[in-house]
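step: validate -> pass
step: tokenize input -> pass
step: predict -> running
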Amino acid sequence: MAARVFWPLLFVACGIAGCSGKDESPGEDRGGSGATGTGGQASGGAAAGGVATGGTMGSSSTGGQASGGATTGGVATGGGTTGGVVTGGRASGGRATGGRTTGGTAGSPTGGAEAGGNPAGGRETGGVATGARAAGGAETGGDATGAEGGAGENGWELVWSDEFDGASIDATKWEHEVNCWGGGNNEDQCYVTDTKNSFVADGMLHIVAIDDHPSGPIAGPEDNPTVVTLGHSSARLRTMNRGDFRYGRIEARMQLPFGQGLWPAFWMLPTDSVYGGWAASGEIDIMEAVNLGPGDRLVHGTLHYGGAWPDNTSSGSSTSPIGNAWEAFHVYAIEWEAGEIRWFVDDRHYQTQTEWHTTDATFPAPFDQRFHLLLNVAVGGSWPGPPDASTTFPQEMIVDYVRVYQCVADPDTGHGCGTTDPEVEPL
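step: predict -> pass
step: emit ->
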């Protein structure tokens, strides 16, 4: 997302497993990929009324016990839990026979969500999990077949996950950000903690944008207490100090909102901005999409780096999932190792980046520090533009799971586990 500013944070070196730290970042903008992304989605800084207070993630994996596809793979420290449960790649026999939904999302322009019951990505075929990654061994049909405590597919080991199987959002893993700042991009949403905007139901996380004209504090970089009214409410969740990672495979299985002015994102920000304000300390956009619909099926993957704003730059690419992103679930992922980051949709490799820079530090900085995860749905802003008469509300991003894997072969660099399409040349 574009034009964001980070203030330096306390740095504690760590690997992919979590460390502690306190967010004092005032916010940031996220630009889209390549020449298209000129907008920005904001971090909003420390959440007003929602600052992390403990629950530091310490997810060093200790192998775990594979039993019928269930893997624990980690030790909970500071209130965070690691690993999670992976059963046949999400559900033995699939979440629902014949697919999760057959009626489609309300107002969907083409009307059918997974009508054949075949979630995109190959993780489930006909509702049966095939080839999901899990600590404890590769899984086929939900049964762990690897050595006890060993690594899963391609040597990846699950070290952190949220399967959203509880009754509510897990506060040991996620923190709400609260502001009506607009991200520095003229976005038209207030991020709130209301359960109408973010909740767990039927094993899924729902982040919902609503056209309801909420009021709230601007907050943002300067923690401005002035109360304003914007056009929409939404939610933005982050794992800062609950799940912070350096290198590995990070993925989420999601169905996206659609329509003019909608801007869903799955991305990462530095937990300790050791190289300076945004974007000198970097930003990794695993997936962003704007204005999804029959006229725009693209999803974007982008890096932000360089100097602190306005001396920042970005690079990225985009692709179209097989099956519309607003009608079917897809798995969006990166494989991040020292000196290289690769992007995937449904395990299809579509982008590699091996060149970036920051001020006052050598490559592979800034992407050699710990980052945390974010999930949000923005409305409007400089990249998508505002909603119009064709946009319907409410719109929601539905998240089946979020998973983070460590490369057992070399956790310190992430090398040795990745997959690459030789026809995808680095940008």
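step: describe -> The domain at 156-407 is CATH 2.60.120.200 (Jelly Rolls).
step: cleanup -> pass
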